[in-house]
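Hello,

Our lab assistant flagged a job as stuck in the queue for most of the afternoon. It eventually completed. Since we weren't sure the result was trustworthy after the delay, we are filing this so someone can double-check. Below is the sequence as submitted and the structure that was eventually returned. Let us know if re-running is recommended.
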Amino acid sequence: MKHRSPSWALRFGRNCAAVLTAALLAATPVTAAHAAPGDQDPTRAEIYRALALDQAPADHVILVDTSGSMAQGGRYGTVRSTLRRFLDGLTPKDHVALFTFDSRPEPRYIGAAGNTEAIVSALPSRPNPAGDTDIGAALNAALTELARDDASPVASIVLLTDGEHHPPRGSRYPTASGAPWTALHKRAQALARRTELAGYAMPLSSGATGADLLGNVVQDTSVLRPQSIQDLGGYLARAGDRARARKAARLLAGDADRGMNADWQDTGGIDLTGGSATARLTLRSTTRHLPLTVTGLRASITGPSVEVAGLPGRVTLEPGASRTFEVRLTGRPAGNPLPYRRTEHADAALRLTGRVGSSWERPLAPDVELDIPRAIHVGQTAVPLRATAGSAVFLPALVAALLLVALTVWLWWRRTNRPPLRGVLLLAPAFGEQLPDRIVLAGRRMALGPPTVGGHGQVLGRRRATEQGPRIDLRIRYTPDGSTARQSDATCAPGGRVVVSGVSFTYVADPGPAPVDGWPR
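-- returned structure --
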C-alpha cells in the first residue's frame, strides 16, 4: 500500500504526555525513600542481575511494517538501526520471532535472542513499495507464534507501523473491526491466562492509527508515541525494559505476602532474678528473591512491663537470611509482696514495631508492585519470664520465731498450771481420831494412794496472783474407791483444809521440823 505521511516536525505532546511520563518514570533510576543517609537503592540493572533475569526466558514477537510508506523520511532505515537497542537488552534464554508485514506477514527470524546482528540482518534491505498494511494478519501470526507448546511464561508483542489498517483484497481482516478481530481478542485472552502477555505499539507517524489496533487485541498494551523517528530507539529500549520488568514481576510474585518473622531463641524462660538478663531475638526473612529492610525497629514487652534494649533501628536481610541479636531485658515479674523465698513465673507479651520494606520498591515502580507485609510477624508472642524473689532466711526465721513464741507460751502455761510442788499434804478421815497419812509433795504432779485412808487421786499445783504476792494452790482430784463415779475435785490454798469424798486434805506449805508420831510440831 502507498500512503502519504505528514512531516515528523509535528508534535503530539498533548495526546501522549501521560504515556511518555509513565515511560520516563519506568526508565529513570531513583533513590530510595527508605534508605539510610548515605545509602542508595540499587538500579534496575543491578536488580535484574540479582534476579538472574538472563536465566528467565521470555518470548518476544516483533512486527515491523514494510509497506511502501515506510520508505518515507528514512523510517525503515531508522527502525532497522534502532531495533538493535531493543534486541541488545534480551538474553540468550529469550526467544525472538521477527515478522515483517505489508500485504501479508513474513517470518524473518525465529529463534534464540543474543545475536543482534543475525536478527537485524534478516530484515529486508528496503520496504515493499507495492505492499499494503494488513495489521490483522500480522497480529494473527504473532498469536500463533506465542501459542506454541514450548512458549515462555512471559511474552511481548512489539508492533511498529506508520499507517492505518489497509489490507489487500481477500484478507481475512478486511476492516479494522468485526468478528475476525473479536476472534483475535479471544485468542489473546486465552494466552494471557497462561502467560504474562503484554503489547507495545509504536505509531511512526501521526496518522498511524493501525498501532492502536494492538490494544483491541491484547488487553495489556502500551501505546508509545515517539515525537520523532529519532526517538524510536529510546522508546524501543523502554519497551525492552518493561519486558524485563515483567520477567522480574513474575519472579517476585512468589514473594507476595512473604515478609519478616521474629522469634525468641530462649524458649526455656528468661531469668530476671538480678533485675536484668540477656536474651536472643532472631529476625528472619521468608522471601526467596526480595531483600527486606525494617526501619524504626523497636521491641517492647508488656504484662509485666519489661524494657528491651539492644536492637538496631534498621536491619536489612537478604532473601531467606536471618540475624540474631542479643538484647537486654530490664525489669521483674510482678508477684507476691511477701518476703519469703520463691520463684515467680510470668508470660509476658512481645511486641515489635517497625516498617518492613525493600530497597527494590522504588527502582521497580511503577512497573512492578511489591506486596510486602509491613509489620513483623512474631512467631512466639509469649515470653516466659522467671525470677527468684524474697529472702532465703525468712522462712527459717519465721519458723524459729513461731517456735520461740510457742515455747514461751508453753513455759508460761507450765509455770502457771504446773508449778513445782512443795510442802506436805495430810490426809485423814473427815470424822474420827485416826492419825493422818503424811505425803511430802514433790515434782509437778503426784499420784495419791494413801495407805491408811485408801482411795486414789492426784495433786497438781496452780500459781495464783494475790494481794500478798504469788502463791501456789493445790488442785486435788480424789475417789475413795477408784471409780470415776465418786471422783471429786477441790482446790486447797496453803495452810487450808478441804474435804473431798469424806477425806480431809490439809495443805502444809511450810511443814517446819520433822513430825513426831505423824504430826508436825
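-- support follow-up --
The delay was a queue issue, not a problem with the job. The result is valid. Residues 394-417 form the longest helix (24 residues). The radius of gyration is 55 Å.
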